[in-house]
Structure formats: structure tokens, C-alpha cells
Amino acid sequence: MDRRDCDVLVIGTGASGAAAALTCSLNGLDVLVVEKEDVFGGTTVYSGGWLWAPGNFHQAEIGVTDSAEGVRGYIRDETKNRFDETKVESFLQNVPRMVEFFENNTSVKFFPGPVLPDYHSPKPGSLPGGRSICALPINGRELGKHLRKFRKPRRELLFAGLTIASGPDMKHFFSARRSVVSAAYVAKRLLLSFWDRAFYGRDLQFGNGAALSARFFKSLIDRNVPVLYGTRAERLVVDNGCVAGAVVKSKDGQTEIIARRAVVIATGGFSGSVDHRKKYFPHSPSASQHRTLALTTNTGDGLDMGSQAGGIVDDKLLNAAPWMPVSAVPYPDGTIGTFMHLLDRGKPGLITVNTLGKRFMNEGASYVDYVNGLIGQARPDGDASAWLIGDHRAVRTYGIGIVKPSPVPYKHWIRAGYLKKGDTIEDLAHEIAVPPEALRATIERFNRFAETGEDADFQRGSEDYNNYIGDLEHRPSPSLGKLEVGPFYAVQVLPGDISTFIGLKTDENARVVDTKGKPIPGLYAVGADNANVFGGAYPGGGSTLGPGVTFGFVAGEHIAGRSSQVSSTH
Ligand SMILES: Cc1cc2nc3c(=O)[nH]c(=O)nc-3n(C[C@H](O)[C@H](O)[C@H](O)COP(=O)(O)OP(=O)(O)OC[C@H]3O[C@@H](n4cnc5c(N)ncnc54)[C@H](O)[C@@H]3O)c2cc1C
User: Are 68 and 569 in contact (CB under 8 A)?
Assistant: First the structure.
């Protein structure tokens, strides 16, 4: 077997692994990164690129004052009996340091999200905006010849071949029909994208997760940190109870990589492994009843390797994964895509009903809460699907699933069987096999709520997030709108995930701990491989990448012997 050595071996090129690798490199360590896929970036490239980062310095720029006491109380409330004080303190103390460190020393830059509220605002300690930050867009040309090694976006996230980024970009796209400035902006974006695709085969205006990942990639390139692609870590090398490296496999065979200081596991969790899902997901794990938006090649390698080295998997979390409602998209070429229902489900004029034709939850809740609503109404066979329903006005104003708003054509989605249509409520009910009288009664009752602006059944509109994903200009409630103008449409929604929360148990420095709670020398786990710091809760936008990048930074500093002491506040 070939041999190679380094100070630090990082397994995986998602944002969490990249953060650890970059921090180690900036602290003068010799870092080697291995990546199972032929391209850089992992699920991170598909993501929204948002990080939940309480106390970040951008808050001052937008006039937001955060309170350490407030955020601590909010997290305590969110995490219930899974509150881990030491890890939460480490997160809270290191988030602001992490943001400053990367912005001051690398190409990793963020912009603030003043209107993205914490997901359970107005709970005490929450904020109506400003804790989440998003990666600043970047042009793919900055990756130079390495661009070909950068993961391409998911098909479902593209509109006319380009990704619409959060922030001003999205605002312009939504306002293009009402504002000349926005229309001109969109025309320019489309033109540039057309040009990029003609010459580079892809849109190069990276936003969101692609921007986050590309910014980490550029920073690693600038520091000459080597990445071995198509190289899968198979097992850890354990010497006398210490992790001393890993055996990796590529098309050229196996190599033993000796890491003098540490191995950082950052393989992105287990969303792609039906076996792991069967073990850890409480609802039906079958491929047809649960769909992941994460990389299907993220198959739990990190959890398996960490367990073999004496680590333990923390599976006692509030949620096994950050859930996301999805729908299965039948493409003309016979492939099935997965669409995430992030915004549409909370728009005025759209509701969700079960197979009895009844509403069963606040549709404007966070995606994690929404999927818990789906799981809660599952039939005895485990089928947790439901129907997202809207009238013509809502569907053409806001879109539904992969069906885009007017003027984008939509009838091919009816022919493909994705979008169900009925001229009347009863016609639609027959189409989707729900009792027509029940569906009509549900819609009539909801329409009365829309008139008063108060959802007496599920309090939709009571949380800031409900209104954020609604339509802030809609009255009397941004979240509630009548379904009255036929035809009516429906899309089937299923439980899905964007990553996993169950992971290796770690301490406040991201060191993997054994059954006695003692750190295993030389072994760190970050990102989805590190059991979620919020005990499986999702307090705000970016609750996986926020901790992922922060603990990547924490691990890097600890390996370099630079970590700050976490002080308890109690
Ligand atoms: C559509 C979508 C939107 C999202 N939006 C957000 C958001 O805005 N904010 C947020 O916080 N979260 C978001 N998420 C979740 C977030 O993307 C993930 O939690 C995060 O990217 C996980 O990062 P990671 O570094 O742990 O793993 P990844 O980014 O998946 O990287 C893991 C890497 O490890 C590699 N790997 C796996 N096994 C091996 C092995 N054995 N050897 C070598 N390499 C290996 C993989 O190929 C992969 O490249 C979103 C996810 C999706 C799908």
C-alpha cells in the first residue's frame, strides 16, 4: 500500500471540512483533503448558503442588537431536554470569532439577512431578523482552472439555467413584472448567464450555497491546500487508542495517509443511505416515501468510521435530520427530480390537506415543523404524503412546487402528472382521491380565516416566519389568502431532508468522544457528522451550516493549539 503523510487529514470538501482545512492551513499546518467525488463542494453547493450566526458583526451594520442572554434562552427553549450547555456555549462564543476570522483572512464573505426571522420568533430571546448571514455571491471565474472541479447545481434549483440568489437578486426576479429597474436587472442576468453557458457550460454567477462553497474553494486554492478527488476514506488508522490517519481508496488503489496531528471527519452525514435511514429515521425510510435533497453519495461513511474507532452515534435528538417537504418531479427523460417546498406552502391561497381533505397543521411553519406535521398524520402503512392545494390566482402568482409563476408555461406539468387540476373543488378532489365534501368544507372554513386574518385552527400567521414565507404585501394577513378562483391545483408533498442531525457525539472542541465521554485522541467530527449542537432543533435559517462552519473553525483552532477557553456563563 502507498503511504503519504500530513499534519491534518480532512475527509470531505463540504463547508464544514473546508472550514477546518482552511483554519488549520492558516495556522501553518500541512493539510491534506480527500474527497470521494470527482468534484469539490458536497451538499453545501446545493444549499441556500445561510448560516445561523448569532452575535455576528454584520448585525451592527443593519442596526440589530443581539443579546447573549436572549439567544441562550431561546436555544435552551428550542432544544428542550437536549440542551448541552458546554457545546452551546462553544458555539455562541465562537460564531462571531469564526465570521471575523474568515472575513479578515480569506475570500469567505457574508452579507446579513435583516428580514429572515428566527424560526420561532416571537418566542422570548428570538429575533425577527439579523441572526442569519448568507455567503456573498461570487463569479465562478475566480476559481480559474479549478472551475471544472466545482460541483454543478441541482436541476430543480435552476430557473432558465441560472440560480437565483437570496437577497437583491431574488427581489429583482420577483419584481421584474412590476419594475423597470428589476426587469433591466433580470435581462442583464439572463444575458450574462447565456454567455457563461455558451463559453463555460454553466452559469458562473454563483449565489447561496454555490457561493459559500466556491469562496471556501478559492481560499483553499489560494493557500495551495491539496485535494485528492475520487478518493474515498475507507477506515481510520488507530494506533494505541489514538487516531493516526486513514486508509483511502482511489482508482489507483489504497493509500495509507498518516496524519501527525489529527483526522477531521466531514463526510456530510447519511442522507443517501437507505440502511442508515431505516435505522435512524422514525418514519418510513423507503426511497419512495422519503426523498433527500442532499448528496445521495453521502452514505454515513463518517459515522461508520468514527464508530469503528470507538466513537458513539448520538441518536437521541429531537429530529433525526433537518427535514424538508419535497415533491417528486417526473422529467421527460424518465428521471425523477426532487423539489423542495421552501416558500410556496406558506403563500396566501395555498393550503395543505391530508387524504381526508382536511388541514392538519400551520403550513407556514418552518420546514422541519411542516414535515413533523406530515409525519404526524401518516397512514398505518407509513405513507406520510399530503396535498398542497392552491387556486389559479395563487398558483400563477406564486407558483407551486416546480411550477413557476406566470408567465412561465405550466401545462406540461399537468400532462406529466405532477400538477393535478380540477375546474371545481369537487373535480380536484376526485382527481386526488380525497372526499369532495370534506375538501370543500376545509376550503370554505379556511377562506373565512383569510377574511379575518386569523387562523383559528392552526394559528398560521402567528409566527414571523409564517409571514416571511407568505407575501408581506398581502392583507389582512401576509400568510392567509382565499382559494376561490378556479381552476384548482394540487401537488403531492412528501417528507424529505436536506442533511442529517444524528451524528458522532463530540465535545465543545469537536473532538469525537467515546462511550465514557472522553475525547478520542486525534479524531474530530464536523458538519453533519457531528451530532447537532441544538439537539436536533432548528432555531433559525442556517442551523446546519452555522454550527457546521463554526465547529470546523473550532476544530481547526484546537488542532493548531489555538482554541479559546470556553467560559461557562452560569
Ligand atoms: C437544497 C438545500 C438547501 C440547504 N440550505 C441550507 C441553508 O441555507 N443553511 C443551512 O444551514 N443548511 C442548508 N442545507 C443543509 C446543508 O447544505 C448541509 O447541512 C451542509 O452542506 C452539510 O455540510 P457538510 O460539510 O457536513 O457536508 P457536505 O457539504 O455534504 O460535504 C461532505 C463531503 O464529503 C464527501 N464524502 C462523503 N464520504 C466520503 C468519504 N468516505 N471519503 C471522502 N469524502 C467523502 C462528500 O462527497 C461531500 O463532498 C441545505 C441543503 C440542501 C440540500
Answer: yes
d(CA 57, CA 554): 18
**What confidence score (pLDDT) does residue 6 get?**
98
Tens digits of per-residue pLDDT, 496-530? Answer: 999 999 999 999 999 999 999 999 999 999 999 99
pLDDT in tens, 377-397: 999 888 999 999 999 999 999
The C-alpha torsion from 158 through 159 and 165 to 170, rounded to 10°, is -150
User: How high does pLDDT run on average in the chain?
Assistant: 95
Which residue, judged by its Cα, is nearest atom 21 of ligand 1? 44
Q: Examine the pLDDT at 11 and tell me if it is beyond 60.
A: yes
For the segment 467-492, what is each residue's pLDDT rounded down to a tens digit? 999 999 999 999 999 999 999 999 99
263 lines ligand 1 (CB under 6 A): no
Residue 282 has pLDDT above 90, yes or no: no
DSSP 8-class letter at 252:
T
Question: Does any ligand 1 atom lie closer than 6 A to the CB of residue 37?
Answer: yes
Strand 31-34 to strand 227-228: parallel, antiparallel, or no bridges (unpaired)?
A: parallel
DSSP secondary structure letters along 92-132: HHHHHHHHHHHHHHSS--EEE-TT---TTTTSTT--SSSSE
Indicate which residue's Cα is closest to atom 31 of ligand 1: 14
Instruction: Read off the DSSP letter of residue 40.
Output: B
15 lines ligand 1 (CB under 6 A): yes
Q: Is the pLDDT of residue 566 over 80?
A: no
DSSP structure string for 491-517: EEEB-EESS---EE-B-TT-EEE-TTS
Q: Whose CA is nearest to atom 37 of ligand 1?
A: 267
- Measured from the Cα of 267, ligand 1's closest atom is 34
- Tell whether ligand 1 has an atom less than 6 A from the beta carbon of residue 16: yes
496 lines ligand 1 (CB under 6 A): no
- The per-residue pLDDT for 176 is 78
542 CB less than 6 Å from ligand 1? yes
Q: Which atom of ligand 1 is nearest to the CA of 44?
A: 21
pLDDT of residue 569: 43
The conformation of residue 346, written as its DSSP 8-state character, comes to G
Q: How far apart are CA 106 and CA 395, in angstroms?
A: 43
The owner of cell 471544472 is 148
Indicate if ligand 1 lies below 6 Å from the C-beta of 49: yes
